[in-house]
Amino acid sequence: GRKSADTSATLEAGFVEIEQSFLELAGSTSIPVQQVINWFLKSRGRTTVNTNFWNIYAHSYFKDHTEQELARVGLQCMLGMSIRMKCYDLFKEAFPDKYKDILSVHDEVKMLSASPQTISQRGQEFQKYYRRM
């Protein structure tokens, strides 16, 4: 059912405290907030949202590192999606244990550096991630 206004207010206050704790922990460890949240959830036996690494690679990482990625397949210009898929396969081969971390951090950096955020906007982003988890 619906939660009462008091319950909503209590939850919101708690979420603000949790968010502040994650922000402080991320700041003191120099680890992105989303990664801290994911590690926290994993350490408590909770699952995290599955990340589509192909989407991060194809729509963000590849665009930011086109020359480097095309060099993996020995090309200087992109010819189509099949080339991008081959680049992704070679990227995973080059970083078999780290490619997910590389793409996750790249995605977080892109998201956080896209535009300056107010405290309210950061709170909204946190709520979005919280609801997804």
Helix content: over 70%
Low-confidence stretches: none
- Using only CA atoms, what is the Rg? 19 Å
The main β sheet shows up as: none
| Large-scale geometry | elongated
Straight-line N-to-C gap: 20 Å
User: Beta fraction of the residues?
Assistant: under 5%
Return the string of H and E elements. Answer: HHHHHHH
Helix and strand content put the structural class at mainly alpha
Number of helices: 7
Question: Kindly state the mean pLDDT as a whole number?
Answer: 82
The tally of beta strands, per DSSP, is 0
SSE topology sketch:
Layout: H1 5-29, H2 33-43, H3 53-64, H4 66-72, H5 81-94, H6 99-113, H7 119-132
Helix pairs in contact: 1-2, 3-6
Describe this structure in words.
The protein is mainly α and 133 residues long. Helix content is 74%, strand content 0%. The protein contains seven helices and no strands. Helix 1 crosses helix 2 and helix 3 crosses helix 6.
